[in-house]
Amino acid sequence: MTSTSARTNGRLAGVLLVVCGLYVMVVTPFLPAAPDAHPRVLLSLAAVAAAIGLAFWLVPWDRWPRWATLLPVPVSLTLIAAHGWLIGADGYRFGPLFMVVFAWIGNTQPRGSSVAMSPLLVVAYGVPALFGPQHAALAIGGAIYTIPICLLLGETVAWVSYQNRRAVRAEHQTAEFLRAAFDNASIGSVAIDLDGRIIQANRVLEQVLGYGQGELLGLEILDLVHADDQQSCRVHGRRLLSGAATTMRAERRFHRRDGSLIWVDLSASMTVDQAGQPTSMVAQIQDVTERRAYESNLTYQALHDDLTGLPNRVLLLDRVRGALARAGDQPVSVALLYLDLDNFKYVNDSHGHAAGDALLVDIAQRLSSVIREGDTLVRLGGDEFVIFCDEVHDGQVDALSGRIHGALTSGFELAGSRFVATVSIGIVVIPATDASADVLLRDADTALYEAKRRGRARSQLFTPELKARTTSRVQTETDLRGALIRHELQLWYQPEVELATGDTVGAEALLRWDRGAQGIALPGDFIDIAEETGLIVTIGEWAVREACHAAARWLAAGSRLRISVNLSSRQLSSPGLVSSVRDALAASRLPSSLLCLEVTESVLIDDAEAALGVLRELKACGVKLALDDFGTGYSSMSYLRQYPFDALKIDRSFISDLDATTEDTALVTAIVDMAEALGLETVAEGVERADQLEVVTALGCTLAQGFLLDRPMPEDQFARRYAPVRTAGPSTVDVPTRAVLA
Ligand code: C2E
Ligand code: MG
Ligand code: MG
């Protein structure tokens, strides 16, 4: 029994006693009294009953044990007995009191209590019978109807109240369960009334929002929501209220008590009454700030470059697509600048990766400072950056590219020394309507390639012609790879003639590509591509092998001719060069002194130290070394002293103008004198006319090579002309060179 029902029942008992007492007091004077009745005593007894009733009213029933609720029973039984005895009248007067008392017993006591109490009732009615037959008759008359009614009433009420108690207990348990679930939930829970005020909030929510116990009650829930999220919360709330939605779930920002913001996962639903009308809103609130931070960190990492913090390719593509979508059909131009640092590999190789990284970070900062607001600067990876401009007007891209080159001119501090970094830039500017992320990147890359090809440290604007050229280069590259497999490459030979004797003492092997219907391609058409793609290494090894075999065959035929083979800088920096030369000599059995390798000055400029090492190794194999195209590069005297060259090939450009300008004559004279002083042979390249031959001979050049003497030709032809099978003696056959020199 709960304290509330104990109080109610106790008071009810009090009221009954008061009412019955007053009732007896009021009706007794008007009823006919029995012969030996004592109405005054009965009145006093009724007054005592009313007084006891009042006392019952005041008893703090909720603090009394359950048995106390039975107290009215002896009181009422005493009243019945006293009434029967004192008045000698029928028992009807106190009859309602018994019924009410048994109804009350049924209400407060377990079922069967009324039956258990019935002997007391019999006793109460039976006591007056002791005082005489008249009393006995009255008692029996009262008991006959009162006792069954009381029992029936008491047990019926007991049964009904038992059912009620059970229902109430079940309801109470449910409520208790819900309360416990609400209070002890591991996430914040809140109940809000229809005006949006908090009517209940659990401990977790108080902790999440930084409030003390009970402090959230009465607050407007929307006041806790971040201003930017309030409207959407309002919309959700209205939908729930109208029944348009049964639940809502969203992540929103909430203010904590200390003013800080947190992200919460909010899910809410309405509670409704039996008629289906909304009564309140219940929401679960979970702090997801950490998870959001983690997620946004992951997103950031996925879209940015670790080293520089700049956006990466993924974000670039996203921004480009976004900008193009925004531009729609409007006549705006977009630009993409593709940047690649020149010689970055050198920084990494010579100063280490940490220095390389520091340089990239520094460069990223400088680039950030020169772009316009709204431009996107991206690190694509390695030393490649991209700047995307979503709207450009005349001159803006030029200005930007100028600022980029300018930003780098002041140089960088690199491992304690000054380093000047330059950058090559490929630029594409096109109407947004024609653009796509792929096209922009591809065309800018094409332009960048051209910028690199044209000497680096420059910007190159993409043009359709550039694309055509690139396409044909790509085609050439593909074809060239096939050419190797299909044996379309050949070596042609051009004689080198000793000027003093007129003898053909050697030949230069020159690469040719038999392209079938397209004719014979010259190195100028494909050697660059072979170098860029690295194919030159394979081609070069093949050339050395092939040339050695040819010279060995000529030697076997009786002509001791020195074979000169060109090496590209790419070959010189490839690790297998020296061994491939050794292998070629071994396989052909050509004496190493009959092989001469030609390199150009560019080889020495790119990486002088490494080149010197390789050249010395080659020299150690016994082969001759020649510096090709001398005079076109930097022509530093120091090369000639430091490097183990045997011959200088004076570039054709000096020879062609020998007669026209005295300067060239003076230059060639100086070269020949210097070479003589250093003990080097000189070869005059590109001798086309007799007068040129005369001059170079007069100047003291050792050898000459040129169309005048003979053109490059296929091996069989060369062999027939300069190395026919014979037994002994120098090459004195009847060949054009002899005729020229004669
Ligand atoms: P180079 O080594 O200076 O070869 C001499 C070039 O001058 C050859 O051009 C030759 O045909 C040309 N020539 C010779 N005499 C005359 C003349 O009197 N007048 C004119 N106008 N030209 C003359 P080619 O064969 O087109 O070769 C061009 C360049 O290609 C070569 O210049 C060489 O640097 C490179 N090259 C040729 N074959 C190879 C090779 O197997 N490997 C490598 N790495 N480069 C090669
Ligand atoms: Mg050459
Ligand atoms: Mg040359």
Structure write-up:
The chain has 742 residues and is an alpha/beta fold. The protein has 4 domains: 3-178; 185-292, PAS domain (Beta-Lactamase, 2-Layer Sandwich); 304-462, Reverse transcriptase/Diguanylate cyclase domain (Alpha-Beta Plaits); 478-722, TIM Barrel, CATH 3.20.20. It is 53% helix and 18% strand. It is built from 27 helices and 22 strands. The chain has an 8-stranded mixed barrel, surrounded by 5 helices. Strands 2-1-5-4-3 form a 5-stranded antiparallel β-sheet, sandwiched between helices. It has a 5-stranded mixed β-sheet with strand order 7-8-6-11-12, with helices on both faces. β9 (412-414) and β10 (417-419) form a beta hairpin. α2 packs antiparallel against α3 (72-87), α3 packs antiparallel against α4 and α12 packs across α13 (396-409). It is rod-shaped, with a radius of gyration of 57 Å. The protein starts with a helix and ends with a helix.
Lateral arrangement of strands in the main beta sheet: 13-14-16-17-18-19-20-21
Alpha-carbon distance between the two ends: 142 Å
What structural category do the secondary elements indicate? alpha/beta
Main CATH class of the largest domain: Alpha Beta
- Unreliably modeled segments: none
Shape annotation:
rod-shaped
Using the CA coordinates, give the radius of gyration.
57 Å
What's the number of extended β-strand segments?
22
Helicity range = 40-55%
CATH topology of the largest domain: TIM Barrel
Give the full name of the CATH homologous superfamily of the largest domain: EAL domain
**Biggest sheet architecture:** 8 strands, mixed, barrel
Whole-number total of structural domains: 4
Mean pLDDT rating = 88
The number of helices is 27
CATH architecture of the largest domain: Alpha-Beta Barrel
- β-sheet strand percentage: 15-25%
Tell me which ligands are bound: ligand C2E, magnesium ion
